[in-house]
Design goal:
Blueprint lengths: L5 H19 L6 E4 L2 H19 L13 H25 L8 E3 L9 H4 L3 H17 L2 H29 L1 H9 L9
Antiparallel strand pairs: 1-2
Helix pairs in contact: 1-3, 2-6, 3-5, 5-6, 6-7
Length: about 190
């Protein structure tokens, strides 16, 4: 029935999303200040390691956990929903977006749209897609990879919020008290 493996389909979906991400990155405000290369590596290393574990065709830790096509299709729905949520957040963030922790010229604190639901909707959407991809892969390796990616996001969020606290002060403190970081109304 399926000519294309669902994990390959998820990979193609991620590549299309990454292509959009690279194109959209060309239409942002100039940077005023940003994190250094070594600081960036502290979250990129676990991020890349996580994706390698998720997309590795031959599991290192354990074989398949399940073979249910229905569970894997649910994973596909999470990939699509998560990446679309991240795109919505990226579009809503507009010219303030950067892949690197950066303060932009004329930087604004966005609190509307997906930023009304969570402070870091791009990471929320991406992590939802990561979990969906791990579900599709159905291996222990993939779920370990998802945990590594969550760690990468938490590292980046901590540093990003430090930047935002310095820039927006009490306004950001109030926003932080009103809106959870990753999961609406939870964390």
């Amino acid at each position: 029935m399926w000519n294309l493996d669902l994990l390959q389909l998820a990979g193609i979906t991620w590549l299309i999303w990454a292509l959009y991400w690279m194109i959209a990155a060309r239409f942002v405000n100039a940077a005023r200040s940003s994190e250094g290369v070594l600081l960036r590596a502290t979250h990129l290393v676990p991020l890349y390691a996580g994706f390698i574990l998720i997309f590795t065709g031959h599991p290192i830790i354990h074989g398949k956990l399940y073979h249910s096509q229905l569970i894997r299709i649910a994973g596909c729905a999470l990939v699509l929903a998560g990446l679309l949520f991240a795109v919505w957040a990226r579009i809503h963030l507009g010219k303030n977006w950067s892949g690197i922790i950066t303060l932009k010229v004329d930087h604004e604190l966005i609190r509307t749209g997906p930023y009304h639901l969570v402070r870091h909707p791009i990471y929320s959407g991406m992590f939802t897609a990561v979990v969906g991809t791990a579900i599709i892969a159905g291996t222990v390796d993939a779920f370990v990879g998802a945990v590594l990616i969550l760690i990468a996001f938490l590292i980046k969020i901590r540093r990003e919020e430090s930047f935002l606290m310095r820039e927006f002060g009490e306004t950001y403190v109030r926003y932080k008290a009103q809106v959870s970081a990753l999961v609406p109304y939870v964390f």
